[in-house]
């Protein structure tokens, strides 16, 4: 099914719930429809182009003057199996958390810690979603899609995806150029559970036995305690990334703030909790009209009603500036601002 609409409201397509219109909106449900569409609409090359899943990691600052492509490919298919693993190919338009639930129900491990993350399956590899010690990069074996530049279907191996912390080639080099249509995941029949995140281990034990169902439930409980429900309040999860800095920078802050949480990162670097920095800069629970910073997790900016995209963006700039002034470090946005 193809839907092509001019001057289309993106309000139902962004979890921040800001008003913005797209000049053109194109949705399709069958693989071959992307080629049919591009061949019959020769002017698409003159337009700005962006991909949109469920809009849970995006902030529209103004109307989008171009073509929004919404791949709504469905389906979950077993493509390969051996004694240890099952490889499942999932359509980009499937809901991420429904797929996690499906895996947990069928006793397949590898993504249970990533329970309750809003968004579409096709968006998961783009920003390499991660939580409670798991990252989707650990289970993605292939990303299949359509290369707009060369106009052909292409497959990327895990290595070619160039995954790193909240990043991939789809967010950098191939941004707005590659339409993810499906993702292949390698899941484990006999999973090794990852309970490195202290609070998770604690919560799971409260539920009883350590198994997939209980881990999923514990993650859901932690997330609902700490993060706003995107169905009730506008937000896009963490607005900023955690920071990776050199030891000297971390020690400099630590001389004044002994209690600063910090974690070991690659290459002898240190990861700083951006939420803590923002909280210390005085923003946690900030509210002005419909605009705010979540009271339980300072990394999350919220829209309580009719905040506009530009207001949210301006608040994020103010937060960046004040964190820089206080700590001398520069926050980087995690949310895609358009
Ligand atoms: N912290 C504060 N104040 C805050 C928030 C956090 O002091 O307002 C401190 C916590 O006490 C803790 C540390 O910062 O010592 C880390 O906090 P937390 O474990 O809550 O996780 P996070 O680093 O703030 C990241 C992800 C989340 C993910 C959690 C759990 C990023 C940008 N965010 O947050 O992902 O759920 O870890 O693994 O990496 C998302 O990307 O949208 C998201 C919610």
How would you characterize this protein structure?
The chain is an alpha+beta fold and 338 residues long. The chain folds into 3 domains: 2-71, Uridine Diphospho-n-acetylenolpyruvylglucosamine Reductase, domain 2 (2-Layer Sandwich); 76-188, 2-Layer Sandwich (Uridine Diphospho-n-acetylenolpyruvylglucosamine Reductase, domain 3); 234-337, Uridine Diphospho-n-acetylenolpyruvylglucosamine Reductase, domain 1. 23% of the residues lie in helices and 29% in strands. It has 7 helices and 20 strands. The chain has helices at residues 33-40, 96-105, 198-207, 212-226, 247-256, 274-280, 309-327; strands at residues 2-9, 21-28, 48-51, 58-59, 64-71, 76-81, 85-91, 130-131, 134-135, 140-147, 152-157, 178-188, 234-238, 243-245, 262-264, 270-272, 287-288, 291-293, 300-303, 336-337. Strand 17 (287-288) and strand 18 (291-293) form a beta hairpin. The radius of gyration is 20 Å and the shape is globular. The relative contact order is 0.13. The mean pLDDT is 96. The structure holds uridine-diphosphate-2(N-acetylglucosaminyl) butyric acid (EPU). Uridine-diphosphate-2(N-acetylglucosaminyl) butyric acid binds at residues 131-132, 227, 237-238, 241-242, 261, 273, 275-276, 279, 284, 297-299, 334.
């Amino acid at each position: 099914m193809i839907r092509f609409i001019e001057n289309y409201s993106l309000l139902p397509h962004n979890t921040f719930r800001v008003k913005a219109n797209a000049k053109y909106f194109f949705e399709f449900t069958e693989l071959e429809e992307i080629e049919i569409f591009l061949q019959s609409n020769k002017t698409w090359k003159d337009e700005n182009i962006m991909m949109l899943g469920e809009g849970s990691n995006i902030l529209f600052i103004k109307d989008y003057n171009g073509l929004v492509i919404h791949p709504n490919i469905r389906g979950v298919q077993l493509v390969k199996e051996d004694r240890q693993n099952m490889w499942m190919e999932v359509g980009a338009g499937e809901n991420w958390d429904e797929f996690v639930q499906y895996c947990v129900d069928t006793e397949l491990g590898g993504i249970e810690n990533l329970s309750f993350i809003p968004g579409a399956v096709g968006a998961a590899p783009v920003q390499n979603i991660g939580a409670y010690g798991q990252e989707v990069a650990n289970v993605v074996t292939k990303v299949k899609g359509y290369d707009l530049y060369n106009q052909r279907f292409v497959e990327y191996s895990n290595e070619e995806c160039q995954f790193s912390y909240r990043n991939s080639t789809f967010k950098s080099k191939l941004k707005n150029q590659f339409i993810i249509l499906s993702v292949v995941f390698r899941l484990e029949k006999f999973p090794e559970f990852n309970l490195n995140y202290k609070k998770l281990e604690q919560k799971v034990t409260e539920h009883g036995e350590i198994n997939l169902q209980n881990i999923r439930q514990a993650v859901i409980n932690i997330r609902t305690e700490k993060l706003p429900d995107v169905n009730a309040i506008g937000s896009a999860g963490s607005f900023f990334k955690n920071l990776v800095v050199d030891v000297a920078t971390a020690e400099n802050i630590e001389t004044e703030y002994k209690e600063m949480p910090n974690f070991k990162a690659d290459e002898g670097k240190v990861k700083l909790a951006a939420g803590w920095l923002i909280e210390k800069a005085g923003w946690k629970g900030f509210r002005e009209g419909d605009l705010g910073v979540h009271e339980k997790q300072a990394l999350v900016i919220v829209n309580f009603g009719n905040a506009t995209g530009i207001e949210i963006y301006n608040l994020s700039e103010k937060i960046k500036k004040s964190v820089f002034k206080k700590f001398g470090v520069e926050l980087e946005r995690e949310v895609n601002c358009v």
